[in-house]
Write a structure and sequence with these properties.
It is a single chain. The protein is mostly helical and about 300 residues long. Helices cover about 70% and strands about 0% of the residues. It is built from eleven helices and no strands. The protein starts with a helix and ends with a helix. The relative contact order is 0.09.
Length: about 300
């Protein structure tokens, strides 16, 4: 059955791309839940653990929160204003938002346009991966990486956090995929990519802290770059670091000068790492080849 489906998809690429696009929309809807709930879950777990270590009792409200069943599946999504439970028909990616006019069906409160944007972007990026790798296991792995990067980007943007529950499995997944040759990255390059990815930002972090007395980034950034190094090998790290730093610097300077943002307010670096990582994942080899070719021509 699976073999026949794969053959059909190989023979009809259009059907394969449409399938990936639709799956991307559905996953994008789920990522909206992950982006919203995972930081809350982390905060509640941290509070409980901290109180246990300090041997302090939870307040009544904190105890109720700890006992409440709250994860990525339960409870069902609700309108934050009126508590209306979102039905299946109201939860169709992008379509439901357009049909409802961007408002809750009960209280008519506005629904953030960010939700359909994330769904649509997830679908588009998923299709890019499918177009690049075709009907292969590499596409399945690439979709997993892409979806994780989208979730990490938005969580870091909202909270300046990069959850270990996403970054650490990504590191191990990259190493395991290199063992089975899913991508053109051998095990040695993957391991060195993870090690050098982590250490490169670790060195920058401590150097910046020694010079300024401030923390320039978080440990989650180290783990994210380690994960990208594990997936793409150590040779791709300079491309990722260069792209992310360049774009991050431009955005940061623009926000300070044009928008009057306080330069002491931290700007999350994870979104730039994730964006640069995605670009390097699909087109990094071509970028390196073009750069090295231009350097050879110049010399």
């Amino acid at each position: 059955m699976l073999e026949n489906l794969i053959i059909f998809m190989q023979q009809t690429p259009a059907a394969f791309f449409i399938l990936v696009f639709v799956v991307g929309l559905l996953v994008g809807s789920f990522l909206n839940v992950v982006i919203h709930r995972l930081p809350i879950i982390m905060q509640r777990e941290f509070l409980v653990n901290a109180k246990e270590i300090l041997e302090q009792e939870l307040t009544e409200d904190e105890q109720k929160q700890a006992e409440q069943k709250f994860n990525l599946v339960v409870p069902r999504s609700r309108c934050p204003k009126c508590g209306h439970q979102i039905t299946a028909l109201e939860n169709i990616p992008v379509v439901s938002y357009l049909f409802l006019g961007g408002k809750c069906s009960e209280c008519k409160a506005k629904i953030s346009v960010r939700y359909p944007i994330i769904e649509f972007v997830t679908a588009v990026l998923s299709m890019l991966v499918a177009v690049y790798f075709g009907v292969t296991w590499a596409t399945l792995a690439g979709l997993f990486l892409t979806w994780c990067l989208i979730a990490l980007t938005m969580i870091d943007f909202d909270t300046c956090l990069l959850p270990d529950s996403i970054t650490q499995p990504l590191i191990w997944a990259g190493v395991l995929l290199s063992m089975y040759g899913v991508f053109d990255v051998d095990l040695k390059a993957s391991i060195f990519g993870a090690v050098f990815g982590y250490l490169s930002l670790w060195v920058v972090y401590h150097g910046f802290k020694i010079l300024t007395g401030k923390e320039g980034m978080g440990y989650g950034d180290f783990k994210l770059l380690a994960a990208l190094g594990a997936w793409m090998g150590w040779k791709m790290l300079p491309v990722i670091i260069l792209f992310s730093s360049f774009v991050g610097a431009i955005v940061g300077i623009t926000m300070v000068i044009a928008l009057g943002r306080d330069k002491n307010i931290p700007i999350p670096f994870g979104p730039y790492l994730a964006a640069a990582g995605f670009i390097a994942f699909l087109w990094g080899d071509k970028i390196l080849t073009a750069y090295l070719g231009a350097g050879a021509f110049a010399s």
